[in-house]
Amino acid sequence: MEQHKVDAVLANLVSIETGLVQIYQYLANREHFSRPVRMFWNNMQKEEQKHAQLIQELRNLQHSRPDAVEVTGIDRESVQAFIDKIKTVLIEVKKPGLSESAAYSIGAVIEAELDEGAFIDKIKVADEQYKAIIRSVANDCKKHSAMLAAYAHGAR
Ligand SMILES: [Fe+2]
Ligand SMILES: [Fe+2]
């Protein structure tokens, strides 16, 4: 993939993470949710913030060493579709009277779709330190997806 396209994909992945930050931040501030539930969403929000920063680091790496980052098999349209989806979800989470379980279901769907997209796994770097960054974001993504699926089914 050409360098400017790699940068565009990475910029979109940062947008996805910051979109998730906005969604989870909003849920963390819903006053009718219980304190533990709001704390749960606040932690989620912090983790997504961390992902945004880590992906931004990959972007910075590519700016300083253009051949250090390769992206293969990410279809830019599916990334864009996911960004559009986040905008829709941001409206959904603002619905008055949204229940805690409906919020878990919304989170479960979005994390499952992101996990299926596996965008992060398609970024390739040679450097071990940056490989570790990619692994940690991918692991969190899988963790979020599994955890929210369980909560959406009433495991909490
Ligand atoms: Fe994330
Ligand atoms: Fe996540």
Mean pLDDT: 94
The top level CATH class name: Mainly Alpha
**What is the gyration radius calculated from CA atoms?**
16 Å
Outline type = elongated
Proportion of residues in helical segments: over 70%
Backbone structural class: mainly alpha
CATH-defined topology: Ferritin
- Count of spatially separate domains: 1
The tally of strands reads 2
Key traits:
elongated; 5 helices; binds fe (ii) ion; two-stranded antiparallel ribbon; 156 residues; Ferritin; mainly alpha; 2 strands
What secondary-structure arrangement, pairings included, does this model have?
Elements lengths: L2 H26 L6 H30 L4 E3 L4 H17 L7 H18 L5 E3 L2 H25 L4
Antiparallel strand pairs: 1-2
Helix pairs in contact: 1-2, 1-3, 2-5, 3-4, 4-5
Bound molecules: fe (ii) ion (2 copies).
One fe (ii) ion binds next to helix 1, helix 2 and helix 5.
